[in-house]
Amino acid sequence: MKASQEVLLIRLSEMKDAGCLMELDHLVWDRNTAPEPLVWTSREQYLLHCPPGSQLVAFTGDVLCGYVGFRSPSGLASQRHVKELNIAVHPSYRRQGIGRQLIEAAWHMARREGVAKLRLRVLSCNPGALAFYQACGFQEEGRLSREFEVDGRFVDEIWMCLFV
């Protein structure tokens, strides 16, 4: 069933979500969306990198449809006004507005917390993601040309931002 026909619940991630989130990462992060496929070796490794509360998760019923992760780019107090995002939507639930709802929820949470800037990185070989981020109001802020070699071709890493 399509998520647009059901109520979408967006909430902070919890410990019990780890397994579903690891599965979603395995589905989403491949050679076209990341410099290398994302593989978690254990639940413990995943939880160290993505502790509970570090993501907004979207559920329809008991099905995880997507998430947006957020973290401080560094431990510097002078950069506490910036959050770096990463977003994933389950392939079966794409083009239903879930990604946009997750970005909007992250924006509202950032505003409440006094965050002034959201940023993300995307590969130039992922035009669908680029178009999505632009439609959400993100602007290209910088580009690292030929930053990665993916399947024998050089790919740029594009840095994008959205001011809160």
From TrEMBL:
Keywords: Acyltransferase, Transferase
Stored Pfam families: Acetyltransf_1
GO terms for MF: acyltransferase activity, transferring groups other than amino-acyl groups
Extent of the signal sequence: none
Keyword Nuclease: no
Keyword presence, Heme: no
Domain of life: Bacteria
Designated name of the protein: GNAT family N-acetyltransferase
Organism: Paenibacillus campinasensis
